[in-house]
């Protein structure tokens, strides 16, 4: 009896040791050994081992494994954000103000000014060289730098909006708004539903459209951050850009259902289903289309810069993601900076073909030498980031509301624009 | 059991107990008061406090002021948002109540006749109820999708009918949202009505039959009067629930196009989490509380007096 008890005890001990020996370094919510003495909480988007794209998930798993092997004694606790980025970022800002933020997190570049203003971010300047910071595109460097000259986040990827087209139906690049309308109508004649774009209550609606306003030289805010998008100097440009979209819908070049589109996935779905030949999307969708379509079908697709009111008045919105540190422990801030450097600043760009924010990385990685990525890089030259001001989210909100009213014909363009401007000014007065 | 025996078992009575006085209820109530105060009352008090400030989520100390009330309650969009909320709430409450009652009547009648399928019907309805609001919104978004491959429009095309602009037509979209909310909330009303129907004294129906009442007369003169308290209580509950609904709408329409489906709860959410205006959001929360309490009082005034007691 005693022998069998001892044997059972030994077996149980051996079995108990096995999981520890064979423990996975990566689980859905942890990277590194679970008993590692030091832990950093990282709140992240899908740009990680849990990516829905199997290739990217595998690539990130390797990057994270290499990273944690380079930092023995550490484990990362991974917290995933939902797809509602605005809400996630607002919640994280509130948590940060209450002192409950994660140690390190992905912060959307367009809300970074809010985090800087709230004073909840820790400086990453000591962990990046001056040469690395100087290599950042100017709009990126300005975005991450605080009033005190410190770098408060590492902006590792950027993106831009382009016009995708099925060259079988729309062979030539639409360079102007008139060309786009003609191409949309041409695709409708071919049995398609016309040009598609985000048009619902969604940040993408405002951001994808803003290039039409910026291309004419329009400005959203003045140097003090006050909305000026419909003042005497800008109102006409703003209204022209809104009427461009209105005309697309009213002429039938775009379906009315654009007012229900609030996801780039909807645009991919229509392209893959073969119901559209023309849509305004992000550069990252190029790879998604390639992964979703048969090679023969994908070969028909191309993209070009967003059209302008004239061919030489073109612009596009540029966004992207940053990594920022909230922890009050310098060791964790350093770890956060290492994470940004070793995983995201370069390797993740190459893995996902997300455009780097450093000019030198375009030469370092072969993927960015492809014709498509060279074209994206060229379009970046006319790119414009959303203004890094506190009022921007409300300006975007008002543009989304205004766009819904105008595209459904519920309001005249002038009146809707004036309402949006007044609401933005009222909100600015309350900040 | 004698009074002395009872008092000997009560630990907090002491001298008072020995003189047969009523024991103090506070020791027993304190846990409840503490929990209610900490988790329910304190946040409400905080909302009232925030409403009298200019606090934002962006930092800063904030100052006490009445200007937030004046600013929020005079916003031009508020009238439209309250109207949209009224349509959404009224449509949802009436729909959920009527369909829930109809389903409960069918289930009770079918049970009496031992028909097959009553459990399946109840379970199917309850599945819709337990689906989270966000998921429900996504399900209906797929159904209402106006793309050529959209769910309901594909069905309409098969039937030779013209597609409907479920979500892009400002005059139709609200009814699409109401439909999705009725789908989600009807099961709750069905359960309440089912329980109330089961509690009706069968002798009332026997007496009605003796008097020669037909089915319709039994419904209007026996069933509905007997269900009145349950209907009113149910309407209070589903009205408050509907007023607070925003998750299903945010995933279905986001409040658009424009502000066509932006109800008060969604507007409040947007003000706090997209405009970062904590004080304005608090004022809107108080407005929602006032509307909910007002409607509850209106419903309660129709309750039979003995039920109120």
TrEMBL record, chain A:
<keyword id="KW-0732">Signal</keyword>
<dbReference type="GO" id="GO:0055052">
    <property type="term" value="C:ATP-binding cassette (ABC) transporter complex, substrate-binding subunit-containing"/>
</dbReference>
<comment type="similarity">
    <text>Belongs to the bacterial solute-binding protein 1 family.</text>
</comment>
<dbReference type="GO" id="GO:0015768">
    <property type="term" value="P:maltose transport"/>
</dbReference>
<protein>
    <submittedName>
        <fullName>ABC transporter substrate-binding protein</fullName>
    </submittedName>
</protein>
<dbReference type="GO" id="GO:1901982">
    <property type="term" value="F:maltose binding"/>
</dbReference>
<keyword id="KW-0813">Transport</keyword>
<feature type="signal peptide">
    <location>
        <begin position="1"/>
        <end position="22"/>
    </location>
</feature>
<dbReference type="GO" id="GO:0042956">
    <property type="term" value="P:maltodextrin transmembrane transport"/>
</dbReference>
UniProtKB/TrEMBL annotation, chain B:
<feature type="transmembrane region" description="Helical">
    <location>
        <begin position="172"/>
        <end position="197"/>
    </location>
</feature>
<comment type="similarity">
    <text>Belongs to the binding-protein-dependent transport system permease family.</text>
</comment>
<dbReference type="GO" id="GO:0005886">
    <property type="term" value="C:plasma membrane"/>
</dbReference>
<feature type="transmembrane region" description="Helical">
    <location>
        <begin position="120"/>
        <end position="140"/>
    </location>
</feature>
<dbReference type="Pfam" id="PF00528">
    <property type="entry name" value="BPD_transp_1"/>
</dbReference>
<feature type="transmembrane region" description="Helical">
    <location>
        <begin position="278"/>
        <end position="302"/>
    </location>
</feature>
<dbReference type="InterPro" id="IPR000515">
    <property type="entry name" value="MetI-like"/>
</dbReference>
<dbReference type="GO" id="GO:0055085">
    <property type="term" value="P:transmembrane transport"/>
</dbReference>
<dbReference type="InterPro" id="IPR035906">
    <property type="entry name" value="MetI-like_sf"/>
</dbReference>
<feature type="transmembrane region" description="Helical">
    <location>
        <begin position="28"/>
        <end position="45"/>
    </location>
</feature>
<keyword id="KW-0812">Transmembrane</keyword>
<keyword id="KW-0813">Transport</keyword>
<feature type="domain" description="ABC transmembrane type-1">
    <location>
        <begin position="82"/>
        <end position="299"/>
    </location>
</feature>
<feature type="transmembrane region" description="Helical">
    <location>
        <begin position="81"/>
        <end position="108"/>
    </location>
</feature>
<keyword id="KW-0472">Membrane</keyword>
<keyword id="KW-1003">Cell membrane</keyword>
<protein>
    <submittedName>
        <fullName>ABC transporter permease</fullName>
    </submittedName>
</protein>
<keyword id="KW-1133">Transmembrane helix</keyword>
């Amino acid at each position: 009896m005693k022998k069998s008890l001892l044997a059972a005890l030994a077996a149980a001990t051996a079995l108990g040791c096995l999981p520890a020996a064979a423990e996975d370094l990566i689980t859905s919510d942890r990277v590194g050994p679970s008993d590692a003495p030091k832990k950093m909480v990282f709140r992240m988007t899908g740009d990680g081992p849990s990516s829905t794209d199997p290739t990217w998930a595998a690539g990130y798993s390797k990057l994270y494994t290499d990273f944690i092997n380079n930092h023995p004694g550490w484990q990362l606790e991974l917290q995933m954000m939902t797809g509602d980025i605005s809400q996630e970022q607002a919640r994280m800002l509130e948590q940060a103000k209450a002192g409950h933020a994660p140690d390190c997190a992905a912060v959307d570049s367009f809300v970074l000014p809010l985090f800087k203003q709230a004073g909840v971010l820790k400086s990453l300047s000591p962990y990046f060289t001056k040469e690395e910071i100087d290599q950042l595109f100017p709009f990126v460097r300005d975005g991450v730098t605080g009033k005190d000259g410190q770098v408060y986040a590492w902006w590792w990827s950027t993106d831009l909006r382009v016009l995708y087209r099925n060259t079988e139906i729309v062979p030539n690049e639409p360079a102007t708004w008139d060309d786009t309308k003609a191409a949309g109508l041409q695709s409708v004649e071919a049995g398609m539903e016309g040009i598609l774009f985000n048009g619902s209550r969604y940040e993408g609606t405002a951001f994808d459209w803003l290039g039409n306003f910026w291309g004419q030289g329009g400005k959203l805010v003045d140097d003090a951050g006050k909305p000026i998008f419909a003042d005497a100097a800008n109102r006409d440009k703003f209204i022209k850009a809104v009427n461009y979209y209105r005309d697309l819908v009213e002429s039938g070049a775009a379906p009315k259902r654009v007012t229900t589109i609030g996801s780039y996935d909807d645009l991919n779905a229509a392209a893959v289903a073969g119901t559209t030949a023309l849509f305004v999307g992000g550069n990252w969708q190029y790879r998604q289309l390639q992964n979703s379509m048969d090679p023969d079908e994908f070969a028909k697709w191309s993209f070009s810069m967003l059209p302008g009111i004239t061919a030489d008045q073109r612009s596009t919105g540029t966004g992207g993601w940053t990594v920022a540190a909230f922890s009050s422990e310098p060791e964790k801030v350093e770890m956060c900076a290492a994470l940004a450097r070793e995983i995201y600043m370069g390797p993740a760009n190459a893995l996902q073909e997300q455009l780097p924010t450093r000019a030198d990385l375009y030469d370092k990685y072969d993927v960015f030498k492809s014709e498509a990525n060279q074209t994206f890089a060229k379009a970046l030259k006319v790119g414009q980031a959303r203004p890094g001001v506190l009022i921007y989210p409300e300006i975007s909100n008002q543009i989304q509301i205004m766009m819904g009213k105008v595209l459904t014909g519920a309001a005249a363009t002038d009146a809707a624009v004036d309402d949006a401007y007044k609401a933005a000014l009222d909100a600015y007065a309350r900040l | 059991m004698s009074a002395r025996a009872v008092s000997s078992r009560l630990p907090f009575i002491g001298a008072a107990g020995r003189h047969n006085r009523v024991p103090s209820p506070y020791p027993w109530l304190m846990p409840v008061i503490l929990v209610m105060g900490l988790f329910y009352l304190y946040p409400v008090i905080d909302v009232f406090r925030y409403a009298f400030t200019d606090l934002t989520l962006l930092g800063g100390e904030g100052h006490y002021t009445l200007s937030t009330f004046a600013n929020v309650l005079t916003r031009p969009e508020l009238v439209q948002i309250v109207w949209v909320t009224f349509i959404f709430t009224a449509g949802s409450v009436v729909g959920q109540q009527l369909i829930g009652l109809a389903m409960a009547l069918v289930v009770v009648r079918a049970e009496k006749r031992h028909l097959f399928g009553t459990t399946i019907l109840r379970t199917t309805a309850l599945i819709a109820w337990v689906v989270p609001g966000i998921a429900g919104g996504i399900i209906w978004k797929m159904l209402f999708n106006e793309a050529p491959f959209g769910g309901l429009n594909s069905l309409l095309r098969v039937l030779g009918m013209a597609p409907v602009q479920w979500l892009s037509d400002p005059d139709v979209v609200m009814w699409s949202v109401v439909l999705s909310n009725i789908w989600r909330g009807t099961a709750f009303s069905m359960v309440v009505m089912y329980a109330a129907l089961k509690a009706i004294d069968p002798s009332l129906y026997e007496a009605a039959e003796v008097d020669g009442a037909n089915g319709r007369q039994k419904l209007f003169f026996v069933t509905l009067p007997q269900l009145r308290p349950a209907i009113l209580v149910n309407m209070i509950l589903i009205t408050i629930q509907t007023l607070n609904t925003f998750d299903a709408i945010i995933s279905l329409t986001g409040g658009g196009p424009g502000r066509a489906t932006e109800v008060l709860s969604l507007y409040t959410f947007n003000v706090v989490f997209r405009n970062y205006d904590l004080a304005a959001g608090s004022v809107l929360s108080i407005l929602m509380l006032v509307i909910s309490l007002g409607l509850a009082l209106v419903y309660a005034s129709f309750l039979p007096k003995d039920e109120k007691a």
